[in-house]
């Protein structure tokens, strides 16, 4: 796996090559290979937090943008895995809302989404948050979100709870857990829309 250039003056130790998806090779005519790297949490940029949600747990979420690379989901402060587009990885073209804070009475809105695309064989493996906004917007159109082909995804057990909306007073309930190896968040509970099993990458 080739290591990309590292942003913000970091050393190569801050971006670690990961063999995930290295074996996934597209047709020779496409000459595309999907690659994955793990970016140190020290390099992530704070994107938002649940401040003002009234939730009893705190959540800050982070992103990392690097040209040509896609995020599997927002990070809650863990190292983040990035992937490149290829035969088995696509850039998302849409969003599915899995939670919002409807009826919470909060002055600002809090929403969670999974990325989607027009091919049902590609699925999300992480969650993106849009917190402290107005009128429940989707993530920005330029968000580099990935969806992954089902053939390289394996159902996996969830890790510890990362955040719950308990305390918000919202109509819908959500509990986010860690997906251990790929370091994304995924709901164990989502009463507005549950997206199904958590997945690891084969």
Give the tags.
globular; 17 strands; mainly beta; 38% strand; disordered N terminus; 202 residues
Task: Give structural notes.
- The chain is built from no helices and 17 strands.
- By secondary structure, it is mostly beta strands.
Compact summary:
By secondary structure, this protein is mainly beta. The protein has no helices and 17 strands.
Q: What is the strand and helix layout of this fold?
A:
Elements: E1 15-18, E2 36-39, E3 45-49, E4 60-63, E5 70-71, E6 80-83, E7 89-91, E8 94-100, E9 109-116, E10 122-123, E11 128-133, E12 146-149, E13 153-155, E14 161-164, E15 174-179, E16 184-190, E17 199-201
């Amino acid at each position: 796996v080739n290591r990309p250039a590292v942003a913000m003056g970091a050393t190569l130790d801050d971006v670690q090559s990961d063999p995930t998806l290295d074996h996934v090779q597209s047709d020779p005519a496409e000459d595309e290979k999907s690659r994955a790297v793990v970016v140190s949490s020290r390099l992530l940029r704070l994107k938002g937090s649940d401040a003002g949600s009234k939730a009893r747990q705190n959540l800050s979420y982070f992103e990392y943008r690097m040209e040509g690379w896609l995020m599997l989901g927002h990070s809650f402060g863990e190292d983040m895995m990035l992937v490149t587009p290829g035969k088995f990885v696509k850039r998302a073209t849409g969003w599915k809302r899995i939670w919002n804070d409807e009826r919470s009475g909060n002055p600002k809105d809090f929403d969670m989404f999974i990325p989607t695309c027009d091919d049902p064989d590609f699925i999300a493996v992480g969650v993106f948050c849009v917190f402290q906004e107005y009128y429940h917007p989707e993530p920005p159109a330029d968000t580099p979100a990935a969806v992954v082909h089902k053939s390289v995804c394996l159902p996996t057990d969830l890790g510890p709870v990362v955040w719950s909306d308990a305390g918000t007073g919202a109509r819908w309930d959500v509990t986010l857990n860690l997906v251990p190896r790929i370091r994304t968040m995924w709901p164990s509970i989502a009463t507005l829309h549950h997206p199904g099993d958590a997945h690891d990458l084969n």
